[in-house]
Write a structure and sequence with these properties.
The structure is a homohexamer. Chain A contains six helices and eight strands, in the order E-H-E-H-E-H-E-H-E-E-H-H-E-E. The first copy, chain A, is an alpha/beta fold. The longest helix of chain A is centred in the middle third of the chain and has 16 residues.
Chain lengths: ~240, ~240, ~240, ~240, ~240, ~240
């Protein structure tokens, strides 16, 4: 078992100020609790949203990240609802990966029927995890190449889940995890006026949890086959009903 | 980390004398080496095969199991190449599950374009893992209900792998594992006269290994989403190229 | 708009006493409320379950059906957890279809990774809806052939939902529907001792509802492409997030 | 039943002058006949095609739209065979959606193995239907946000149909619909010199129709799960053979 | 190029008297014209159909086979609409394969949403092609083992086509092929009273043909990857629109 | 049988200097041996790679092409690891297609989880094969339109293979083919320092070969359904185990 000091950092990318919290906040709460360093990179200020000014949303995000125990930075790409698939963006994201040197990376799923920024960012991060390990890229020369361990995708709603791809399920039933996650989601007060985002996520986590035989759980979709030394970590499955 | 005494047993089902060895033998070698109890249930004597008598094949299987450090039993269902999907078979398999009380179960994949016994046995074992935990089954009353942790499917050839379902990949590069596995496969001397089964499996394991950045590896397909307490065991991915 | 007297009957098949209620009970509550005749055919007494005697479960089912406004009958096939795919079963189910002459039929999904009775019954009902319209079957001669309008599959848990097949979503937010449904589920008191079936179904219905912009909703998977006279009934979509 | 005055408009996007007519013209004929307002947005003049000048093709399109009872406008994006996936395009399309305020939107499928303009326009329209409902987009401030009811994709040929995604099937057998549709397709005289587009579409509609038990039918693929108040509109299925 | 005398036989299985003709009759017409020996095995007399007596249907089938230039035999399994998946059936079919020793085998697709006999026969034939090459099967000892070259599935209607699996397309535009095929279909006069089977098949063949740039074509789905010595036979593709 | 002089040229596109060799080099070796003209278009100098200078890599590629008997040109698009999906690129590739006038085109698969240049080039080539046959494109006026016969995709590693899409398998067991291919791969000496690319490809080809009953084989994924005049070329299938 690695000590918490040995846990490689987790790097989470979000297209909008609340994406990481809604899509993977419970998992993040558990990882920081276990002592893992977690860093958020948020790629817009949510300026296209119906509610909340960029200033408000920046503040909400900083508060949410603090509640979850994560550090945070904002990375300007094309702006909210304007993201395009450009090589320069993938290189910028790869530069962050080389700087943070994570073991695990989180990004939104690449399902094309969701907010256009989500799936494009998911694909850009996927590209970036590859670029980060190629040695000859002039734009990235400032830092040594870095190979991550695994990229996981998170889904912001049921329609963003990759159909037919079984996820891994992370048990959130340790004391306090769901409470911390809920508090972090509630920090995005401007977004909760018109839609029940918090209730949606908690209901999703309850369905996943009941199916896995625990209180609450969140799912992640691995980008590549998971590699293990043995079957020892693999003795739990979700399908209680 | 559980000690080896605490590792829940592994129960592997095969339709024919050599199926477990060819499809998951490297993984079995690693598990017994780590101290896990492994038990094989072989559901025919291979009597429909082109080569080898039932007596020879029984002896080869016992030898192979011994090399891998597994115990073994034969369970008569309908006979080689005659397996049908009967409730009585699922109940018989569930009875074995209640007796052995495994944490992990292995069975052939349910892809319908392979030897007809393979996919039917895979489906029967899948059914059996459910029946084993239902309390009211008269045929199973002799033993208390048992819920396994996870069912994994193994693939005997490239055409038996479930398309589009990402597997977990088990690293076989610890010293001696591939050698033990190869020896166990070679114990099935009668089957190696006309087809290069051993070379096929080693080439498949080499491709999986190179893709995972290790020497050799074997893949398994989980029946249900995998559940974890945290991301700690999930920091390796296969996609080196 | 048909008057309620003109609504063709709904015929729902369940493998166990509580399947229809858990998988489609909210939809049934809405249909009987609208005046449609609904008939349940339950194909076992749940005698393999961990909790409840067949007698208790029969009584619970009758009570649940009554709460939902449906009539009910029991059809003995092979018994709980023993169902096999036999032509005689499909013919028996087709006989019921010819007798009830429904416009819509409900059955459990055919996803093979669930209770073995569920998917087998789903396939048998699918076969039966075809046999019911073939004119030359000696076993069915007593009644004229009948072609149903549409067969829908219901899913008892998240793992039983057909991946990648978009469902139709039925809005349950009319007053009283969810309350009636909940009461019908609660009638299965013997089954609620060890697992949170009711909470699972309500959480699933809440996720579906939030995604569709309503309070609660349940999904069904059509067996065949849906046919419409025009786009008029097709102006609502689920994807609020 | 809504009166025709209450039917929300239908907005159909095409990449080339004849796309809507060939892919969904029969459905459009039925909707305008029922009194629904239909508006076409054509995103090029077909200037890359083998036959027909832009002037000819513009005239043919206007004539075809008139035959179908639809209004029409041309929207210049990147030009025929030059369409790229740009945020500015999605915003332009979203602007049209806010202006027309449709209940239903039609666009070509996003299957990537077809004319490059088709699938890119399909994805752009999908993005646009989301952008149209986000309140904070500066480029769209001139008009209030608008949430459509449902986006449907149409397929211009068998290879453009999304495999494995069941469509909805619209019955075209009311008197005069196929005749009107055929006349509208024939208006694209320049395109009919070298390929049997009209016969292809009629043969496809005949196969769909026979399968649905009617004379002719056209299919659409819903972008999101369809939501209904009850099962009443859902009593017809296609699978006659 | 093999001479016609060297062409290995084609063995086609049908569940009902008209299945082969409707699903693959155009292809059969081309093969017999080229000098290949074709043999039909029909596994029922169609006695469950709405129209036609077994005697009539037997006569119609013999006439149709004659028109197509094929020999024919009837094999009694469980009777029309009663077919079950039994090992004995697969062995019986394997016995026919050993007798006829075909290079190519045809069977209905295994899609489970069609006539229950169709997909079960498809799976039984798939199993049988494997059993035919296993040397140790007592029931088959009378004849030497035989390995076929390729198994293809044919689809009787659009809903029986395997979604997402690209077929091979056989050009039927040589003079006389479609005429012969149409005549063979028309021989099933009893089946043409209530449904437009012939028109359905011709419309499907016209769509396939137009897409492939020829007059008419029929599709087949290979069971296993196709193997070639070079790219020389692979220079035609279907996607004209 | 066409004589070698009649074989239409093969045009292969690669994103990097070694892609064609690793992904389809064995097939190319067979085609040039049979007398077919093969031309490589390489769309970067590999300047982002960890090893090798552009100059070295250009030289290695020229040597490899020579060993395989192919001609070669370099086409500058956006540079290694910078490729974007631009209409201008598709037009440039279409221009090459019009110049070379191939019967068969090869490109990397479009699976989005691989090197970002690979799948984008695959999609660009797919678009280009369509643009090449449209008569009205101003940029392409210099040369007459050209319709290729078939586009095939090659996969550079197991993770780049399109899941669920059966490939065609090309037998490489003719004498000298694998040796020539291996020599061509070895010409990319700069790339073999850190990864076992050659062994990966040979192990993949061995698995494919054993499954097809031959020594070695490589797979290609057709973009469109394959069209044949008869079943004569279709008598071999891969599934030996």
């Amino acid at each position: 078992m690695p000590t918490s000091a040995q846990l490689p950092p987790l790097l989470a990318f979000g297209a909008h100020p609340d994406d990481i919290e809604f899509g993977a906040g419970g998992i993040v709460a558990g990882e920081t609790r276990a002592g893992r360093r977690v860093h958020f990179v948020v790629c817009s200020r949510g300026e296209a949203g119906t509610n909340g000014t960029p200033k408000q949303r920046t503040a909400e995000t900083r508060r949410a990240a603090k509640i979850l125990g994560a550090t945070i930075e904002f990375l300007e790409l094309d702006g909210d609802a304007h993201l395009e698939t450009k090589a320069a963006h993938a290189l910028a994201l790869a530069g962050v990966i080389r700087r943070v040197r994570p073991g695990i990376v989180l990004a939104p799923t690449t399902e094309p029927n969701q907010h256009p920024d989500h799936w494009r960012l998911g694909q850009l991060v996927r590209d970036a995890t590859r670029l980060a390990r190629y040695g000859g890229l002039a734009e990235l020369k400032a830092r040594p190449a870095h190979a991550i361990g695994q990229l996981f995708f998170y889904a912001l709603g049921p329609g963003s889940e990759p159909p037919g791809h079984p996820p891994v399920v992370i048990d959130l039933s340790a004391p306090g995890i769901v409470a911390t996650w809920t508090k972090a989601m509630a920090a995005h007060a401007s977004q909760l006026k018109t839609r029940n985002y918090v209730e949606l996520q908690l209901a999703r986590a309850r369905v996943r949890g009941l199916d896995a035989g625990v209180d609450h759980a969140q799912a992640l979709w691995p980008n590549d086959p998971l590699v293990f030394d043995s079957l020892t970590p693999l003795t739990r499955g979700a399908r209680r009903f």
